[in-house]
Design a protein that fits this description.
The complex is a heterodimer of chains A (140) and B (231).
Chain A: H1 2-10, H2 17-20, E1 40-42, E2 45-47, E3 57-59, E4 62-64, E5 67-69, E6 81-82, H3 84-95, E7 105-118, E8 124-139
Parallel strand pairs in A: 6-8
Antiparallel strand pairs in A: 1-5, 2-4, 3-7, 7-8
Chain B: E1 2-5, E2 11-15, H1 19-33, H2 47-60, H3 69-77, E3 80-85, E4 102-103, E5 115-125, E6 134-143, E7 146-156, E8 160-165, H4 167-175, E9 183-188, E10 196-197, E11 217-223
Antiparallel strand pairs in B: 1-2, 3-11, 4-9, 5-8, 5-11, 6-7, 6-9, 9-10
Classes of the chains: A alpha+beta (140), B alpha+beta (231).
């Protein structure tokens, strides 16, 4: 966590000019300022085989443990969704940045994943875990 | 390893996890899966894991779904599918001349709160042997202190995997674990019901058979109640 914060701090100057010059007025310049640090889906592949858990997790070999990361800056990437509350919260944040935080970048659509593993040396289970895989992200 | 956002489009490894951190992560995943500890390694090529692996693959590729309508329904309706290998060594039925005919399954690990959609006993019969026999599956019950047999399902021996509906006994075993006395196989010619044959003599693979991929097993389908245990 500390390393992540330090990395982000070091990367501060990398913010786009649109972000740094963004007008605090809610009806101000709405020019696109989407950047790679805006809310988006990120991929982290978890390999059960690499972790040497494949002797008891039969399938899958691993999975894309997608997660949501980034800031909720408007307008969002065309693939992103935002709740009405997030849009209103953004406007209020722009008016009172110290009082109201930006909306959160979080999953908007989740899907299940099936995992096949041994319960013990003889019994096996194929279990569907609901809402485990992030399919899309958005601002809440 | 421990990964951080590289600021563009992916994560990069910052450092490797230590052994203790790795164990902690493993414990977290086991906890998520609902397991108290890492399961023991199972014998390779056994029939039950292979069956569930085929089900798993069929879920990924529905166009390649080559199983019966009833089973397809059960698979799609289920949130959890469990297979149980017969452990007749662990339990004696008390039925005479039972060798190879008695099957017992440890169903104590069925998760609480799961609704049972169905249960099947799957036996493999060598396709080249005695197709004109009848196989009957009985539930062993204790009636007034005496052991008795209750007919569960019947099938004609067609060779290959034979499927018997054992939902009734399975539901009873989960609800009343002490009632689990196992199942009894009766094999006979259609015109000689009193003359029982030994299952192995008609090509039915036994628990102690040399080919693990043909051993009998029980598979149960469950619908999740939506209740989640607290971590």
């Amino acid at each position: 966590s500390r390393k992540t914060r330090e990395t982000r701090r070091r990367k501060k100057p990398e913010t786009t000019p649109a972000e740094t010059n963004f007008s605090p007025h809610p009806f101000g310049d709405a020019s696109p300022h989407w950047s790679s640090r805006s809310c988006q889906i990120q991929t982290l592949y978890v390999s059960f085989r690499d972790l040497e858990w494949h002797d008891w997790i039969i399938a899958p070999n691993g999975y894309d443990a997608f997660y949501c990361s980034g800031e909720c800056n408007f307008p969002l990437n065309a693939h992103m969704n935002a709740t009405n509350h997030a849009i209103v919260q953004t406007l209020v944040h722009l008016m009172s940045p110290s009082l109201v935080p930006k909306p959160c970048c979080a999953p908007t659509k989740l899907s299940p994943i099936s995992v096949l593993y041994f319960l013990d040396e003889s019994n096996v289970i194929l279990k569907k875990y609901k809402n485990m895989v992030v399919k899309s992200c958005g601002c809440h | 390893g421990l990964y951080v956002d590289n600021g563009v489009d992916r994560t990069v490894m910052a450092r490797s996890l230590s052994r203790s951190e790795r164990q902690e992560v493993e414990h977290e995943i086991l906890n998520l899966l609902g397991l108290p500890s890492r399961p023991a390694r199972a014998p390779p090529n056994s029939a039950a894991p292979q069956f569930l692996l085929d089900v798993y693959k069929s879920l990924l590729d529905e166009s390649n779904f080559n199983i019966s309508g009833r089973e397809q329904y059960a698979i799609h309706e289920s949130d959890v599918i469990m297979s149980f290998t017969s452990r007749s060594d662990f339990h004696q039925s008390g039925v005479r001349h039972e060798r190879g005919r008695h099957l017992w399954f440890d169903v104590s690990e069925v998760p609480a709160g799961e609704a049972i959609v169905g249960a099947e006993l799957r036996l493999y019969q060598n396709p080249g042997l005695h197709k004109n026999v009848v196989i009957q599956v009985y539930e062993l019950v204790v009636d007034n202190g005496e052991k008795a047999l209750r007919l569960v399902d019947t099938a004609a021996a067609t060779g290959g995997w034979l499927v018997f509906n054992v939902t009734g006994p399975f539901t009873s075993w989960v609800a009343f674990p002490d009632s689990n006395q196992g199942l009894y196989l009766s094999v006979h010619f259609p015109d000689k019901p009193g003359h029982e044959l030994h299952p192995e003599d008609v090509g039915i693979a036994s628990v102690k058979g040399s080919d693990a991929s043909k051993q009998p097993f029980l598979v149960a389908f469950f619908k999740s109640s939506g209740h989640r245990t607290s971590r």
